[in-house]
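As a warm-up, study this chain.
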Amino acid sequence: MKIFSASLALGLMLGSAAAIANPMVGGAAMYSTRNIVQNAVNSKDHTTLVAAVKAASLVDTLSGKGPFTVFAPTDAAFAKLPAGTVETLVKPENKAMLTKILTYHVVPGRITAGQIAAMAARGHGTATLKTVEGENLRFKKNGNGWVVVDAKGDRSTITIANVMQSNGVIHVVDTVLMP
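Now compare it with the structure written out below.
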């Protein structure tokens, strides 16, 4: 119980990490006064995600009022996919599949790591959030961080939590989540 309490305390501290002014993501400062798209376009680690968001016509949505919680895969995360997957997904004829995958990375509301920790404490170590796509993501503590488990059972680690945006929050992840 002591370990879980310490984990919860760490998670709650991560939840208050929003107080860190302009955290760096992909070599760029992320400004809480800018929206998700305005910040993401400046991250050198999210060029594939930005291109995919544009190809899926989700720029206006993710620039909108929200709030949204985005689990943002890095370029390295997209590189883990089988060769040719990204190139295939961004083709106009595959827009519906790309949209399904991208909206699986978005949860309605502004959900911080601290809130995930609190949900996990109530859920016996696991938190579940419903995505905009409609399926669930599960969250489990892993050492000092959090792992996101997708519908296929694959795991992605949150590498940077609580990057606050004017219309939500971004959590950077190291693997593309699949519905």
